C-alpha cells in the first residue's frame, strides 16, 4: 500500500464502480478473491435513478450473495405493491388498457425462480453493493490507461486532484461504461446504431398527486397523449416520481410543462429534482476481452431500457467473469477458462439488444390516437382498438422470463451437449430454495448412490475443485457450475468436470 492509500498490487482491478463493477467485486469476494474497484464518484447520485427494475435473475444472484432481503427491506416500493402497467390518456385521466404480472414481480413462491423481480432505483442497488464491496471500493479515482503484458496489467489511475498512481493487477475487468478506457485499451469497438428519437427523463416531486390517480398502483403508467406521449411512475410512496417524455429534445424541454402534460393537470404543483436527456443505443463490442482484460456491462453492450434489461445483463456478465477469474486465481482452473467468457456472454447481450430494440419499435407515440383525448364517446369508440394494439405489441416487454431466466449458453466450449441453461429452480421446503444448497463452487445434484457421484468427487479432489453434493434420491446426475448454470447431465460423468473448466 503506498502513501495515497492505493495498493501497489491486486489480483483483480475493476475499472468502474457502478452496479456491474461492484457486482464483479462482490462475486470475487464470494470466492475469496481480493479486488480493487476504481470509481471516480465519491457518492451515489440519488437524483438520476436510471434503471428501476431489478430482474428475477438478478435477485437470485443477490440472494446468492446474501443481499436480496437487504434490497427488498430498503426498496421504497414493496414487491407486493404492484405488478401492473397501466396505459392511460393522462395520469389523471381515462384508462385504456393494463398488463399484469410485469417484470417477474408476481413470482413470489413460484417454482420458476428463487426470487421475484423487484422495483428499486439503481442508486439503492449501488448503495447496497458498495456496502457489500467494503474496502475493495476506491472512490475519487478513475482508470486513465493500462498496459498489458504476459504476466499482468499495469493500470494508471488518476485522482480527482490530478494525482497519479500505478497499480499492478493480474487481471482487469472494465466496467467503465460507454466511454470505456478499457475497451479502447484492448482495441475493441462498438458496433451498432443509435435511435434517432430523443427522450427526456425527469425526477420530480408532486405532493398529493398519488392520491388523485384513479388507476390504482402501477409500476408504469404509459400516457398515450399524441401531444405529449411518455411514461411515468412512482419512485417511492411519498411524493417522488419519475417520467420519460418521449420525442423531446433537451433544448426544447420545459420540465414543469412536460410533467403537467403527462399528468393532465395544467396547474399541478411540481418541483423538478433532476433532468436527464438521452437517446437509446443498440451497441455491442466487437470483442469482449484480451488475455487479461475483460469488458462487462455498458463497456461491452448497450440496449434500450424497454423491458428493464440494461444493468441486469451486466450483472450476469459480472458473475460469469467473476467465478471464472476466481477459479483461475484460486488455482483450480487454467487460464483457458477465461477465454470462454466472450463466447458465453456476447451472444446473450446480442439477444438482449434485439429484444429491447423490438420493444422500442412501439412506444407511446405509436400507440397514441387523437380520439383518446376527445369526449367520452370519442374515447370509447377508439379505446378497444388501441387496447388491442397495446396488448399485442407490449406484452413481450413486460413478460420476458424466457430471456431473463431462460437464456442458455448454447455452443459454449465448456458445457456438454444439451446443457448450458440455468438450473431449473424448485422449492425444497417453505423458504428453502434448491439454489440455497448449491454451495460456492460446483455442485452435483441427483441420487447420492449413483456411481457417477464418486467419479465426480474423486475428480474434484484431484483438481482441488470445491464440489457440493446435493442429494436428490432417484434423480439423474446434474453437474452445476458456480453461476447456477448446468455444465453436464447424464449417467457417466467421466471428464465432465475437466471439460467444464476448459481442461479438455
TrEMBL record:
Cofactor(s) needed for function: FAD
Name of the protein in its database record: 2,4-dichlorophenol 6-monooxygenase
Classification via SUPFAM superfamilies: FAD/NAD(P)-binding domain
One Gene Ontology molecular-function label: 2,4-dichlorophenol 6-monooxygenase activity
InterPro entries: FAD-bd, FAD/NAD-bd_sf, RIFMO-like
NCBIfam families (alphabetical): PRK06126.1 (NF004780)
Annotated EC: 1.14.13.20
Pfam families: FAD_binding_3 (PF01494), Rng_hyd_C (PF21274)
Start and end residues of each FAD-binding domain: 9-355
PANTHER family in alphabetical order: BINDING MONOOXYGENASE, PUTATIVE (JCVI)-RELATED, TRK SYSTEM POTASSIUM UPTAKE PROTEIN
Keywords attached to this entry: FAD, Flavoprotein, Oxidoreductase
Amino acid at each position: 500500500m503506498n502513501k495515497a492509500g492505493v495498493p501497489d498490487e491486486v489480483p483483480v482491478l475493476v475499472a468502474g464502480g457502478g452496479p456491474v463493477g461492484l457486482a464483479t467485486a462482490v462475486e470475487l469476494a464470494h470466492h475469496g478473491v481480493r479486488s480493487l474497484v476504481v470509481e471516480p464518484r465519491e457518492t451515489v447520485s440519488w437524483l438520476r435513478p436510471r434503471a428501476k427494475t431489478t430482474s428475477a435473475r438478478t435477485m437470485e444472484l443477490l440472494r446468492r450473495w446474501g443481499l436480496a432481503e437487504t434490497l427488498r427491506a430498503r426498496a421504497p416500493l414493496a414487491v407486493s405493491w404492484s405488478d401492473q402497467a397501466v396505459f392511460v390518456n393522462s395520469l389523471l385521466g381515462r384508462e385504456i388498457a393494463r398488463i399484469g404480472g410485469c417484470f417477474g414481480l408476481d413470482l413470489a413462491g413460484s417454482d420458476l425462480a428463487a426470487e421475484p423481480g423487484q422495483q428499486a432505483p439503481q442508486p439503492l442497488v449501488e448503495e447496497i453493493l458498495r456496502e457489500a464491496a467494503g474496502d475493495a471500493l476506491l472512490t475519487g479515482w478513475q482508470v486513465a490507461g493500462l498496459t498489458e503484458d504476459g504476466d499482468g496489467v499495469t493500470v494508471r489511475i488518476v485522482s480527482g486532484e490530478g494525482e497519479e498512481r500505478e497499480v499492478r493487477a493480474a487481471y482487469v475487468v472494465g466496467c467503465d461504461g460507454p466511454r470505456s478506457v478499457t475497451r479502447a485499451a484492448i482495441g475493441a469497438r462498438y458496433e451498432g446504431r443509435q435511435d434517432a428519437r430523443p427522450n427526456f427523463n425527469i425526477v420530480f416531486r408532486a405532493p398529493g398527486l398519488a392520491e388523485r390517480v384513479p388507476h390504482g398502483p402501477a409500476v408504469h403508467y404509459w400516457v398515450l397523449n399524441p401531444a405529449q406521449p411518455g411514461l411515468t411512475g412512482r419512485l417511492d410512496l411519498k411524493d417522488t416520481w419519475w417520467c420519460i417524455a418521449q420525442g423531446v429534445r433537451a433544448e426544447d424541454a420545459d420540465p414543469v410543462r412536460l410533467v403537467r402534460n403527462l399528468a393532465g393537470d395544467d396547474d399541478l404543483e411540481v418541483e423538478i429534482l433532476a433532468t436527464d436527456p438521452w437517446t437509446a443505443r443498440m451497441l455491442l463490442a466487437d470483442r469482449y476481452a484480451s488475455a487479461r482484460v475483460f469488458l462487462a456491462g455498458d463497456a461491452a453492450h448497450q440496449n434500450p431500457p424497454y423491458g428493464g434489461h440494461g444493468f441486469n445483463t451486466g450483472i450476469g456478465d459480472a458473475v460469469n467473469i467473476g467465478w471464472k477469474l476466481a477459479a483461475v486465481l484460486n488455482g483450480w482452473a487454467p487460464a483457458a477458462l477465461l477465454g470462454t467468457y466472450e463466447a458465453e456472454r456476447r451472444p446473450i447481450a446480442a439477444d438482449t439488444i434485439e429484444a429491447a430494440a423490438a420493444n422500442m419499435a412501439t412506444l407511446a407515440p405509436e400507440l397514441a390516437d387523437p380520439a383518446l383525448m376527445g369526449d367520452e364517446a370519442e374515447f370509447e369508440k377508439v379505446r378497444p382498438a388501441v387496447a388491442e394494439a397495446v396488448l399485442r405489441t407490449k406484452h413481450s416487454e413486460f413478460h420476458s422470463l424466457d430471456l431473463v431466466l431462460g437464456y442458455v449458453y448454447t455452443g459454449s466450449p465448456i458445457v456438454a451437449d444439451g446443457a448450458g441453461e440455468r438450473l431449473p429452480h424448485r422449492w425444497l421446503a417453505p423458504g428453502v430454495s434448491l439454489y440455497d444448497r448449491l454451495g460456492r463452487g460446483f455442485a452435483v445434484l441427483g441420487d447420492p448412490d449413483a456411481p457417477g457421484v464418486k467419479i465426480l468427487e474423486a475428480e474434484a479432489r484431484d483438481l482441488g475443485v470445491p464440489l457440493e453434493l446435493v442429494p436428490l434420491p432417484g434423480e439423474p446426475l446434474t453437474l452445476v457450475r458456480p453461476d447456477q448454470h448446468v455444465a453436464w447431465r447424464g449417467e457417466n460423468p467421466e471428464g465432465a468436470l475437466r471439460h467444464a473448466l476448459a481442461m479438455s
